[in-house]
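Is this the right way to post structure tokens for a design question? Let me know if I should format differently. Anyway, here goes:
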């Protein structure tokens, strides 16, 4: 699965707003503040925030001290909602086989396809993890987040223990 730039940057922008609200800083966050924190241009941030606002995830506050805040608490906004709002598609859908049939009208494996099972299981697992993971959880450290995700979707061997060490953070493994 590829995560688009819009999904990545949009998620980072809404996390900035959530972080500000979590730390109890008064007032909304401006587009310029978000842009500065994320190293993005103000017009790019404005585009991303507009998408998130139309999806009902953030709201604008007018006035001299205006900006953007979360419409709901970070504890009630799932990553599935955020990524879906930002255009996140499904890894696999039922029309996948029709679109990837090669030169044939119907995929040669239409009756019995182990690949379709793989994509379906991965899609279900990914969707479950994203639905259960709340924006507030991404405000934790990388190590804490890794542990949370290990519980939700362990890269498990037969014993259920993490079989490999994560090359990003060093978690897991023997």
């Amino acid at each position: 699965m590829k995560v688009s730039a819009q999904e990545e940057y949009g998620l980072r922008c809404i996390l900035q707003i959530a972080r500000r609200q979590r730390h109890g800083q008064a007032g909304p966050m401006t587009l310029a503040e978000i842009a500065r924190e994320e190293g993005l241009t103000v017009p790019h941030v404005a585009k991303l925030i507009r998408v998130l606002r139309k999806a009902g995830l953030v709201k604008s506050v007018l006035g001299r001290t205006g900006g953007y805040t979360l419409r709901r608490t970070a504890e009630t906004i799932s990553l599935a909602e955020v990524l879906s709002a930002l255009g996140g598609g499904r890894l696999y859908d039922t029309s996948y086989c029709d679109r990837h049939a090669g030169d044939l009208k119907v995929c040669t494996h239409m009756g019995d396809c182990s690949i379709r099972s793989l994509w379906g299981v991965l899609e279900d697992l990914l969707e479950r993890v994203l639905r259960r993971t709340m924006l507030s959880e991404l405000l934790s450290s990388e190590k804490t987040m890794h542990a949370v995700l290990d519980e939700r979707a362990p890269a498990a061997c037969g014993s259920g223990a993490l079989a490999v060490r994560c090359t990003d953070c060093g978690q897991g493994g023997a």
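Format looks fine. Someone answered above. Worth noting: The chain has two domains: 5-139, 142-174. The first helix runs from residue 5 to 22.
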